[in-house]
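Most newcomers find our protein records easier to grasp once they have seen one. Sequence and backbone structure share a record, each on its own labelled line. To make this concrete, we reproduce a full record directly below:
***
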Amino acid sequence: MIRRPSIPLALLATGIAAIVYFWIAISPAVAQRSAPRDPAEPQQSPPHPKLLPFPAAVIARKSIDEKSMRALIDRLVSCGTRLSLSSWTDPRRGIGCGRDHILARFNEVAKESGGKLQIVVDKYESASERTGGKPLALESVYAILPGSDPKLAKTLFIVSGHFDSRPSNVMDPEADAPGADDDASGVSVSVESARLLSKLAATAKGEYRATLLFAAISGEEQGLFGGYRLLEWAKQQGYTIGGMLDDDIVGADPATGAPHRVRLFSGNGEIDDCDSPGRELARAIEEIDGREHIRLIFRVDRYGRGGDHYPFYKAGLPAVRFTEPLEDYTHQHQTPRTENGVEYGDFAKYLNASFLGDVARDNAEALRQLAMAPAAPTDAKLTGAVTPDAKISWSAQDDPERAGFEILWRETTEPRWQVYDFAASPGETVLRGVSTDNHFFAVRAVGKNGARSIAVPTEMERRPPPVPAGTKQ
């Protein structure tokens, strides 16, 4: 007689419980993967318009000059500190030393562009508690590539990095503050984007309808001075902001498994049921560069932090922030030192040249396609409440280079748009059998070259429900 080993009752019960718990745990995921049990919208299949392909990517990864980017970072680090409170006149130490290196590099790029790139040094003053309440003289450097289309040349797309740095004490101009990652890395991206796009401007591949501005700004660590000033300066020059790309801390990727995607931060905005222009800019950049390169972060910035895109975002303009995948805070805002065997300080040796080159390519290609696109539509509206059909309307000026408009929709819980239909001209399009309640809608312009404007979400009629007299809504 063979005795089979018996399974203890307690162990058997534990196993059964584990199996039950496993199926309960995965059932939501299984349910989400199963076929939807909702009525189709519309009942008949939606239109399937033939859509223009996006422009082919022109800026190849191999065209990025990582050596020149690293050389600029090394020169900025050699200034010892670039705190905005430090010297603007000492050629070897202080923020003026950093400005001189950036200006020299921009002038080299401008010469290579055949004079297409225009260099501006913007001098201004600003004050905050981080200047002791006294006005501080500051300077930013802009390189401008004018647009070719008279109707769009006053639309401005910006890429920016800040060249000031800081030690642990933001009021100490004597302490070293190398600032390799924060934010010589972002400055190098802006300058490299200027090199790539101004070089293309001399060819058929470099036809930018809108104007491009490549910025290296100061005063960020003292209170986002450079960002506020850049917004003010652009308005003074009569520009409309088409998009602002802020590159701040984009040079390191030390986590296991690199390379990783760069994070792209965008705020939601303050309009009910409507994303901000910055969110739409982020979606456009991801669509151009690919999800394998861009990680969308639906938050205006890192928790408890700020950057130079913020003044633009608060003004209701399309602005986003690029930041590396996983920050190392021992190499940010730290006076160089070693404590308990840990080295503190923002040194160039901690940077990842390959990752930095990826970020430069992502910025430059996104800027190129956005500057090629028609103007975004205006006055996008959604009507049709309490009817079976959604009605989308919008306005746009005449543009012989525009092919038409894509009408976009998405589930209210989905992060990305899908194309529903195509319209050749502005006006109203009726989406028959599509509820106004279950989706968000947007419209974007499409050029004959395939370049898309950022999407413009539709605003809804506001119909608050009736309430008892005296009740506030």
Q: What stands out?
A: The radius of gyration is 26 Å. The first helix runs from residue 9 to 33.
